Amino acid sequence: MLYIVLRVSLHGAAEGRHSLSECIIFVPSAGAFQLLSGCSSNTQSSSFLLGKSSSQVVKKEQVRATEAMAEQAYTVPTFRERAPEGMQEYQRMAAHFGRDLVQLQHELHRMKVATKEQVDNIEITREVKGMMPLRKDFPAEVPTAPDFLVSLRSHTVWEKTPVKLFCTVSGKPNPIVKWYRNNVAIEPLSAPGKYKIENKYGVHSLIISRCAVTDSGIYSAVATNPHGKATSKATVCVRRPPGAGELSHLPGQVPLLSGIHLSKLEVTLMESFGVTFGTEGESVSLVANMVVVPDLPNLPPETMWYRDDTLLMPSRWAEMSVGGGVAKLTLPHLNKDDEGLYTLRIWTKDGTAEHSAYLFVKDATPTVAGAPGAPMDVAVFDVNADYVLVSWKPPNTTHEAPITGYFVDRRKSGTKDWVQCNDSPVKVCKLPVHGLTEGASYHFRVRAVNKDGISLPSRMSSGVTAADVESDVEVIKIEGKYDIAIRQEELQGVYVTIPDPPTNVHATEINKTYVVLSWTPPSPRGRVPVWYLIEKCVGDSHIWQRVNTAVQLRSPRYPLYDMEDKKSYHFRVITVNKYGSSEPSEPTAAIQKVDPYGVVSNIGVPSAPGQVIASRNTKTSAFVQWEPPKHANNLMGYYVDASLVGSKKWFPCNHRPYKHTRFVVHGLVPGDTYVFRVQAVNAYGLSEESQESAPLFIDAALSTPSAPYDISLLNCNGSSMTLAWKRPKNTGGSKITSYYLDKREAESVDWKEVSPSPTAHRTFTVENLTTGVFYEFKIQAANLAGVGLPSEPSKAFACEAWTMAEPGPAYDISFWEVRDTSILVQWKPPVYAGAVPITGYFLDMAKKGSSEFVAVNAEPVGHCYLKVSGLETGTSYVFRVRAVNAKGVGKASVVSDPVCAKALPGTKEIVCGVDDETGDIFLNFEACDVSETSKFTWSKSYKEITESSRVSITSSGRHSKLTFVNAEKDDLGIYSVAVTDTDGVSSSYSVNDEELKKMLELSYNIKHPIVPLKTELNYEILEKGHVRFWVQAMKLSSSVNYRFIVNDKAITSAEGYKISHDVSTGIIQMTVEHFTKANEGTYTIQIHDGKAKSQSSLVLVGDAFKVALKEAEFQRKEHIRKQGPHFSEYLSFHVTDDCTVMLVCKLANVKKETTFTWFKDDEGITVDVPPNPMSGSCSLPIPMFSRKDQGIYKAVLGDDRGKDTSVYEISGKVFEDIINAIASIAGSSASDLVLQCTPEGIRLQCYMKYYTEEMKTSWFHRESKISSSEKMRIGGTSEMAWMQICEPTDKEKGQYTIEIHDGKKSHSRTFDLSGQAYTDAYAEFQRLKAAAFAEKNRGRVVGGLPDVVTIMEKKSLSLTCTVWGDPSPEVTWFKNEQEVVSDDRYKITFEGGKFASLTINNVQVEDSGKYSINVRNKYGGEFVEITVSVYKQGGDIPEPKLGQMAKPVVTPKPVTPAPQSAKTPTPQTPQPPQTPTPSVKSPTPTPPPSVKSPPPAPKSPTPPRSMRSPTPPRSMRSPTPTKK
User: Fold this and answer.
1) Alpha helix segments (H runs only) across 249-386
2) Where does 898-997 show beta strands of DSSP type E?
3) Cα 582 to the center of its chain, rounded Å
4) What distance in Å separates the CA atoms of residue 1355 and residue 1373, rounded to the nearest whole number?
5) Average pLDDT of the chain?
6) DSSP-derived 3-state class of residue 1318
7) CA distance 1314 to 883
8) How far is CA 714 from CA 707, 725, 808, 1049, in A?
9) Interatomic CA distance for residues 1088 and 1068, integer angstroms
10) How confident is the model at residue 490, as a pLDDT?
11) Bridge partners (DSSP) listed for residue 955
12) Residues 6+ apart with CB under 8 A from 385
């Protein structure tokens, strides 16, 4: 059996990077073999052990040299015979790892030869070193003091992981390096295995294995030699990962489980709540999603929520729910009391599952600017019958004024009113409250006060009941059913009446504001209530004074506020009940107020915390730790503040005191640099701020990079290969400094280092390869934290020379300027160009997950970049590049990583501008994200600008500026900037010819400054006819110089000219007092203000000058006019609410003797109220305005000082404006359309305040305008406008609208004349039409009959009249209401249906009486009465009355009554007179009586007896019928 142990070590001396392959080969008798491989580190030699005879071929010296450099070889375990059942597995393993034995022997021989050569080299080296002492030594270098070439770097690591601190020191002689932690020397022997100190090749290192949190601190390396000492320091921060004991960001605060809680559910937490930020008053929900197996709706997992170390219970401040795979905690009304670490603990089958995150609650906006935040954590202690002690925590103050005190408020449960407990603010965070009602429940809240105002109130405390906590009654339970109360006096056999004095009188709270006195009540105290009296004695005066004269104390506590400073007091207490008072208690020791900021132990604010150390945590958080204060003084916690470097503005990181000395600050901006400070907090307030931490750049903590990937072959010439690869996806928070390459033949298992020195680039040419052999490669990346994991082995590349005519693949595809719809793709040209030069590139694109690539560009592009537009926002794409030459299209590049078309949050673009001071043109860029190692790379046409005389580049923080030295056309093009070590932060800007011209103009104006003018030189005419020339500059200094030039002649301030300026407004002016024809010409002003100049000119010649001169003369005349009575405002008009037109004017400079007269068309107007000039205004009312009121109106004002006239012509445009103003008021007051029926048709009426036909009024039927015609008549009165439909038909149905136009808008009213409204209206029209027809054609007496006839007897009397009717009426005569029948004496005739007569022959006295005629036809009729008086012959003729025509009494034929109309609402405006209700339904008001239809009269065939014919006038006689 042959055992072979192979041990091969490969290392790069420059980087200290090692790898080892160790193979153990044993060949059993059966001829099988097995190969095992393993890796180790720190190996610097190779050794071979071939059985027992291999050591005999090497000299002893060589063996010792080999052993000195080699670690202990691997010991081959004793071979164990395998059982038959294990042979199958053994054979499988042997087949898997086996190789051809002959090949193995060749490999062993090669390795043996190589090892021998190495051992020989070691021996030669040893011999050379042995000969060195024979040579004379000469000092090669001058002795120097120690100096750190590479300093220590700070580290943040996880718990239980190692950390390596290393540094490089130079100096002659070589310095000795010693290590310290927190200034304490590190002794490796004191903690075996903990520390390892090394020194290799000048690199000193300290390795801490399995770091604990307690290993955090400041480590320093101190290098010394005879010429000096040097120190390098670094901070190590050790954090615990989540779920491993204490949390990484906070000390463990959730209490440990007290026992095992069995659960049959398997619970796995999925997405859970993270760090949350809220504001007081808001609502926040913390949600955790989980998978529960089995998921039973009625049996959700049991959950517990913790805030810090407090188990939360459901309350008004916290709502909890679990079910449906979700656990939720809702805080409906946030307060700073809610800030803290929230932990969700869920019972599972295997124990518990937990998740924690911090909730930050910032102050709500105060009601008064500058007021402090609200206090928090209000608690109540020491509860007694009428006394409690309230405490709270103070708020943090950063930019607010210091807190000067606090107000405490109380509220009885069940009420809403808060009562302030202290009259003046208390300075400490606790207040004794007395005077409470025993048995009542109270809530308390606190408000902070500073010089700017009072804060919002804190969250109120839990309810507490004021009750006596100490009692002399002892309760004994018997068998758990009965309670027996026994008093102390009964146990002692004494009945107490007069109580004993209290005992143990002392002060429990002492500070600058108050002292709380406490004592122990007497025992027994008796059956009756007791109270207490307190007496005080100042100093040693032995004079006792009563303290609480007006207060009856029932609690053994009392706060004292009225103690004077720097005086000591003694106190004693007396017990009182209804039987009397006890003896005084023993007096207290001397008690004195204490200044909380004095030196008394445990009194006052804490001292400031110690050193603050900040280190990286994540891209948005930092880990801060500090040393506790030396004097804690009952510490409540700490406040941490942060400030952006350079801003000098501090903001709070936590809003509730934090108890521990380590804290994670969240919500920071990546790429910014912050400093931190800490304040300690107790009941007396906040300590002084600690010293600031060192500035910390916010970025993720350092770690080694991940593995490179996608190794590709770019070229091969038969003996070398050029490789490329993609950078690691995770750089570890630090720039990658180098790459290490290993290679192996495809059939080999051993990796060999390609080069002893790493490469800094992502391409490398591997030399000395064998043609025809397949090689595999792997790569490791390194940064400041160390060397990362190796990549996966590449594909096996054949080492065969490329001879194809087409180009090789492009490589290094990168993405810049990623926006929502576009991406800029860049790549590097192929290393292998092919047979002819490359002429262009094709860019192919595909959506992520798809293999269907499409070409982005139809024609090849000649440069190595292309902007792809028209992408879908939020969609991921992959790209590849194909190079083109004259022979064809070459190989496609490796497919790029997916890129999402979505701009980074906060992305900004390049801004082009001009410097206001220097006039330089610049391009400025602000990055949305940077890292500590980021650099701004500017390019033109996407070629990096390295050194250029045309531009200069400056960068600071997030900003970078490219400034053109002397911009010209050569600078046109596309400029881009990229920020390294970020997620592709970049932007580009195209400088075109037009923009460059604009920028150059701005630059010229800045470099050659002018005085900027707001306005050019202008003029205005002042009163008295003065002319002011003025110009206004944007800004003037006090040293400004200027001059006015008129027609090439400089003007100075002299008679007739006044020149001045105002620096505050920038106005320069010149006033010409006598402006005449001689002032025509060119006006110029020249301004000099420092280096800036300006000039402005105004040309006043020709028509422009004539206008100015005319205006100046007018103003001069106006000035003269205003010396006497004059119109300050000339005649104008306005229309009142009742549509009366008023001509008004305003007067000035009048007196009692001043007269005022109105004229129209040169004729005087007499007004009802004479004008009163002394009132300052006069007016002329024109009611019922219409076209007749047009004319020229004139107002004349005068007295002995002069006369002034105002003329106002009302015509044309003025008349139209007045009508429009009337129309506006009338249209606004217009009522809804009213329906009114007439015998001629249907009328629509619109009532308004005033109507005149001059108003622009339009009527519409449906949408067609109506013109006045025989069918549609349009008219109106002063109160209304109407439109009448004559003889309506169904065509006239529909909606009617009236529009009243006032020149600006129209006022419309509508009426729907259809349906039932039309039916009722048409019926009413027919009724009125029939009534009118009947009235027209009824029988009637046209004329001829007198009222009274006097006649002598024996004469003949003829009563004759003309009648009319169609058809011809019937005529009946009556005497004394009895029908007259024709006979010999009474002869009745009716000729032609027109003339009716009654003739009485031989009239007798008895013929006297009342005669009447009744004329009727089918439409009605009337009767006429005549009084006949017959006197005897020779008798006196009766005096006749004044005769007059007989008055007919109309007796029309009755018409069928119309149906009763419905009641309709009447609008408020206008209010027409009350009229009878119309006969048809209408939603409009009733018409006035002037247009109402006559009501029908009842039919009366015979006149009533009571009626008589009126006496006709004497001048009238009965007419004689016309004879045909």
Assistant:
1) none
2) 899-900, 911-914, 921-926, 936-940, 943-944, 951-956, 959-964, 973-979, 986-991
3) 70
4) 20
5) 82
6) helix
7) 83
8) 20, 10, 7, 83
9) 12
10) 59
11) 960
12) 436, 438, 466, 467, 468, 554, 555
* Separation between Cα atoms, residue 504 and residue 502, nearest integer Å: 7
Q: Read off the pLDDT of residues 1135-1147 as tens digits, 9 standing for 90 and up.
A: 999 999 999 999 9
> Quick one: how far is CA 1132 from the chain centroid?
52
- Give the separation between CA 544 and CA 177, rounded to whole angstroms: 74
Q: Give SS3 for 914.
A: strand
Positive or negative torsion for Cα 920, 925, 926, 930: negative
DSSP class of 338: G
Q: How do beta strands 838-847 and 811-816 pair?
A: unpaired
How far is the C-alpha of 656 from the C-alpha of 392, rounded, in Å?
11
Instruction: Label residue 1512 by pLDDT band (50, 70, 90).
Output: very low
Query: What does the chain come to in residues?
Result: 1524
DSSP letter assigned to residue 873: T
Mean pLDDT of 297-320: 89
DSSP 8-class letter at 529 = -
Rounded to whole angstroms, the Cα distance separating 773 from 791 reads 21
Three-state secondary structure along 783-802?
Answer: ECCEEEEECCCCCCEECCCC
Per DSSP, 1215 falls in state H
Strand 1420-1431 with 1409-1417, pairing:
antiparallel
**pLDDT given for residue 618 in this prediction:** 84
- pLDDT value of position 1493: 34
Cβ atoms within 10 Å of 1029's Cβ, excluding its own: 23
Residue type, 144: T
Distance from C-alpha of 1178 to C-alpha of 1170, rounded to nearest angstrom: 9
Contacts of 1248 (CB under 8 A, 6+ apart): 1226, 1227, 1229, 1230, 1231, 1279, 1280, 1281, 1300, 1470
d(CA 585, CA 704): 75
Task: Write phi, then psi, for 988 (nearest 5 degrees).
Answer: -140, 160
Q: Which of 563, 559, 577 is nearest to 500 (CA)?
A: 577
Q: Please provide residue 1217's backbone torsions phi and psi, each rounded to the nearest 5 degrees.
A: -65, -40
Give, as one character, the DSSP assignment of residue 861.
B
Task: Return the closest-CA partner of residue 782 out of 841, 740, 837, 840.
Answer: 740
Closest CA to 71 of 43, 112, 38: 43
> For the packed helices 101-131 and 60-69, what is the interaxial angle rounded to 10 degrees?
100
Q: What angle do CA 675, 681, 687 make, to 5 degrees?
A: 65
What is the rounded CA–CA span in Å between residue 1346 and residue 1520?
11
pTM, entire model: 0.48
The residue type of 1436 is: D
Q: What share of the chain is helix, strand, coil (3-state, %, to 5)?
A: 10, 40, 45
What's the Cα-to-Cα distance from 1021 to each of 249, 437, 1077, 1129, 1229, rounded to whole Å?
78, 83, 15, 19, 45
Rounded Cα gap, residues 450 and 397, in angstroms: 11
Tokens of 237: 């921060």
